[in-house]
Amino acid sequence: MTTFDILFFHFFQYYKNKKSKKANSIATFYITVLQCSLLLLLGVFFAKFFRQMHMDTMSASKAWTLFVLIVIFIYFKNWMQYGGRKRKVLNAKMIKNRKLTYNIWLLWFLPVVILGLTFVLFQAV
Fold first, then answer.
1. What whole-number distance in Å separates Cα of residue 89 and Cα of residue 9?
2. Which helix or strand (DSSP H or E) is residue 23 part of?
């Protein structure tokens, strides 16, 4: 199991008790936002790195178009992956670890911190 699988399961378990019908959607949305924010951080880092190295790889509009297409792909990948069978397999594997070990507010704050770091890196020269 990957880190994203564990985080998905923790979100799913937390919201299953509170909002049973929306738990899968909330957990899928969170994992998608987390993965996309990490992708954006890496993209900004490499864009700044290539600019410092005086390499012209692609224009900014093409990079943003590629980012949007990858975000759509990531959302549908997560939707398919965590839709049914994978979630049941995760539930079977994590049945012993029912206790949540992560604070849910810290997990919601993680993508915000990553986006803040991305903004700071984007503003850097």
1. 11
2. helix 23-52
Q: What's the CA gap between 40 and 107, in Å, rounded?
A: 18
Structure token digits, residue 91: 């539930």
Determine the Cα–Cα distance for residues 67 and 45; give it in Å rounded to an integer.
14
**Tokens (6 digits) for 88:** 């049941």
Helix axes 3-18, 85-93, angle to 10 degrees: 90
DSSP three-state, residue 72:
helix
Distance CA 114, CA 120 (A): 10
Q: What is the residue type of 50?
A: F
pTM for this prediction: 0.85
19-68 pLDDT, tens per residue? Answer: 778 888 888 999 999 999 999 999 999 888 888 888 887 888 888 899 99
